[in-house]
Amino acid sequence: MTRSKWNHYLSSVDIGMVGRTTLKPRCQCLPLAIKAMGSLLHSKVEAREWDDVLNSELWDLPTDVVLPALRMEKLINLRYLDIRYTLVKEMSSDMCKLKNLQSLSTFIVGQNGGLRLGALRGLSGSLVISKVQNVVCDRDALEANMKDKKYLDELEFEWDYENTDVGGVVQSIMDILSSLQPHTNLKRIHINSFSGLSFPAWVGDPSFFNLVDLGLQNCNNCSSLPPLGQLPSLKHLSILEVKGVKMVGSEFYGKCFFLQHN
């Protein structure tokens, strides 16, 4: 399209009105969607072509299938993906194909897609893994290779359901978090709504020498705290709604306490 044709089109169509009344609401204010549609519509010179795009059945897709519909697995050179403040309900199983991804705000575990993070070795910065309850077993958790993600600084695990007292389920939850042991380079770890009876051994392990911020929230089934006193660099500790803990004793300090008092 020539510049003169584009200028003529701009003069004949109220682009601002189209954006405010049609494009922006349909894109639900999502920057990625708005940018993609803007690039697509930029090449359309006829009003009917705009109508064809804006009336496409793509707009009728449920929000949770928008990412698969965009076929993001084809974006093999994608480096940054931020899905915060969106209504996305789960990640596509093809996310593992984005091997060049360096920054991912959130990974939402789907009921069928699993935790396909193993191939994303270059992830850095902050990562939230939500809906951990959808991880099927500890083997699935191990395949995420969280130990290999040495460039991550901050990691958060989130479960989406209320605590349960079903023995088999609780044991599975404990095994899964144990298998999600991250790299020791992390500076911040938060665990939300974990319903195991105790935390895995890696929580409080002194090998996490860079860890300065640790948060435990809504972990009501746990009756004792991990030995957080062993973390050499810990500066900020947040413990909220861990109602099963009635007393904090010497176990909080771990082996270091006993070595100093023997």
UniProtKB/TrEMBL annotation:
InterPro entries: LRR_dom_sf, LRR_R13L1-DRL21. It holds the Pfam family LRR_R13L1-DRL21. Residues 117-240 form the R13L1/DRL21-like LRR repeat region domain. PANTHER family: DISEASE RESISTANCE RPP13-LIKE PROTEIN 1, LEUCINE-RICH REPEAT-CONTAINING PROTEIN 57. This is Putative disease resistance RPP13-like protein 1. It comes from Vitis vinifera (Grape). The gene is RPPL1_212.
